Amino acid sequence: MDSTLGLEIIEVVEKAAIASAKWMGKGEKNTADHVAVEAMRERMNKIHMRGRIVIGEGERDEAPMLYIGEEVGICTREDAANHCNTEELLEIDIAVDPCEGTNLVAYGQPGSMAVLAISEKGGLFRAPDFYMKKLAAPPAAKGHVDITKSATENLKIISECMDRSIEELVVVVMDRPRHKDLIQEIRQAGARVRLISDGDVSAALSCAFSGTNIHALMGIGAAPEGVISAAAMRCLGGHFQGQLIYDPEVVKTGLIGESKEGNIARLKEMDITDPDRVYNAEELASGETVLFAACGITPGTLMEGVRFFHGGMRTQSLVISSQSQTARFVDTVHIVDDPKVLQLR
Description:
Elements: H1 3-21, H2 29-44, E1 50-55, E2 71-72, E3 91-100, H3 102-106, E4 113-120, E5 131-137, H4 151-162, E6 170-174, H5 180-189, E7 192-196, H6 200-207, E8 216-222, H7 223-236, E9 239-245, H8 248-251, H9 260-269, E10 278-280, H10 281-284, E11 290-296, E12 307-309, E13 312-321, E14 326-335
Parallel strand pairs: 1-3, 6-7, 6-8
Antiparallel strand pairs: 1-2, 3-4, 4-11, 5-8, 5-9, 9-10, 11-13, 12-13, 13-14
Helix pairs in contact: 1-2, 6-7
């Protein structure tokens, strides 16, 4: 995967973020999602690649999708032979969430991003649109914490690995009824809890960076976003584990099928024969080369949101590469008219 592709995927998430940010605070989450999807699709179809969406978005709530199995890129066109050397072309798997945190955009809240991860064909776990129990932690705790341990045990391990007291630790948890006991246990152990309404990819990423004041992500969230988080954490050296949740009684939302038995049958159809298996980041993002890109839609812990000015806008993105072992923060001014001012700060 050459460096040119790495540069182009930055523009993919930038275009999606800008399109969605225009609907920030307007209370229309599906519209914010739809325009991000269309902008992401349009830009990806201009890239010299043969890509396939292996993780899409929006399936559960019937929002617009870059659907699973959709082919994107110049080299997927009917006239591809005129544009591409198909014999030498690398086939790419892509996981996308064009607007991660649609409610955050709709109500003007922090932490929404446009995100994607790519790898060579077969390099990303094809997660069903189920839920996933997740554990993310800093690099210092990698291989020491374990999702099968209790929250109390893992907090003690993180405390020892980071040489700080449990009282100094902050754990991000999705604000959901299913997490009532987890939140109580974390607080009783002495750590602090930061509740979020949406957007756990950002929370997982933040665990890998010192200075974010986020030391763990715990709890159950969407499985597709778990794969995207794992791709980034693999590149950053952070700890990430995921375990599929297929029992509707556990998540208490009614969004993942009518029965536990039916969901197990669906997993078998996807060649997932051990539904209780615990996956680490290297298994969820197993490709030789993995790239992750995100662009802030609304301001967050890691990135600014899209800022508009007369004649243009400014974005902040993050692109992470396992190949170059880099995490680049990219600050971009987009000029769309004759600007009167180019704002530096």
